[in-house]
Amino acid sequence: MNKKRRDAIVHANSLVAQAWAIIEEVHEGEEEAYENMPDNLKYSSKGEIAGEAVINLENALSAIEDVDAYLSEISAQ
Predict the structure, then answer these.
(1) 7-17 pLDDT, tens per residue?
(2) How far apart are CA 37 and CA 41, in angstroms?
(3) Would you say 33 and 50 are in contact if contact means Cβ atoms under 8 Å apart?
């Protein structure tokens, strides 16, 4: 890989790290809001939507960690 493409991968990895930080912040807020919901609200449709959002944000973070690992491996070669 030439320097220009390697630099582009390093830049992309930086953007991935920024996205991870934003999503992590949203996840923490959503998880806290869900945990602090009264039980009757947790089991309502609003609570189910919030719970699903927490799970989906966790899945997004996991996927971003995979992307970060792949990009880091590429830029290290």
Answers:
(1) 999 999 999 99
(2) 6
(3) yes
DSSP H stretches of helix in 1-77: 3-35, 39-42, 45-76
Q: How many residues does the chain have?
A: 77
Cβ-contact 14, 5 below 8 angstroms:
no
24, amino acid identity: E
Reading the block at residue 64, the tokens are 């971003």
- Of the candidates 10, 21, 1, the one whose C-alpha atom is nearest the C-alpha of residue 65 is 21
- Collect all residues with Cβ–Cβ distance below 8 Å to 70 and sequence separation of at least 6: none
**pTM (2 decimals)?**
0.86
> Which amino acid makes up residue 14?
S
- C-alpha–C-alpha distance, residues 61 and 49, integer Å: 18
Q: Where are the domains of the chain?
A: 3-76
Please report where in the chains the tokens 């320097």 appear, as a residue: 3
